Amino acid sequence: xxxxxxxxxxxxxxxxxxxxxxxxxxxxxxxxxxxxxxxxxxxxxxxxxxxxxxxxxxxxxxxxxxxxxxxxxxxxxxxxxxxxxxxxxxxxxxxxxxxxxxxxxxxxxxxxxxxxxxxx
Amino acid sequence: xxxxxxxxxxxxxxxxxxxxxxxxxxxxxxxxxxxxxxxxxxxxxxxxxxxxxxxxxxxxxxxxxxxxxxxxxxxxxxxxxxxxxxxxxxxxxxxxxxxxxxxxxxxx
Lengths: 120, 108
Description:
Mean pLDDT of chain A: 97
Order of helices and strands of chain B: EEEEEEEEEEE
Number of strands of chain B: 11
Order of helices and strands of chain A: EEEEEEEEEEE
Largest sheet of chain B: 7 strands, mixed
Distance between the termini of chain B: 36 Å
Largest sheet of chain A: 7 strands, mixed
Low-confidence stretches of chain A: none
Distance between the termini of chain A: 40 Å
Oligomer: heterodimer
Shape of chain B: globular
Number of helices of chain B: 0
Number of helices of chain A: 0
Radius of gyration of chain A: 13 Å
Number of strands of chain A: 11
């Protein structure tokens, strides 16, 4: 069974940093592209970042470019999101989401999400 | 960036009725459009990819159609578990991958 379990969320002050993790199991993690998608409270979905299976290709939404860094450790079956210079508008539930193998850019499995709250 | 709009914002229907949800793209996305369902407190679930292909395990009452800029998600006969928010998402021209604002299907 495919499982994605996020962790690392919490309350952080504006300008602070946080590192999210996503532990993957039930599939060959190193073969799949991965993403982070977020959802502000009561709002819609926003794609945040993408990383290829090897980690060689990375993309970011303009809203987080230069502040967030996506990475992965295929030996540990883990995906990460380092978030720096956090702003109030970064407050959201952050989901890690797997890309479909043959349908790039479509998310076939999602974690349960971890809440990040940026507030003083 | 491709902008997706969804209509209506809210659809109030009764169980057993047919639901028709619309998604429009600001430019052609060919057939590269997906639909997701999200229930309160849960992660989204993939329903349809590439406009009309049902994802694994999705019931046949869910169907998708369209191409170019206009797309439709149809639920042929609403079951109680289908009342949720539905999002469309394009993968035609990315980054960025973009989602629509969602349509809430609630019980009339």
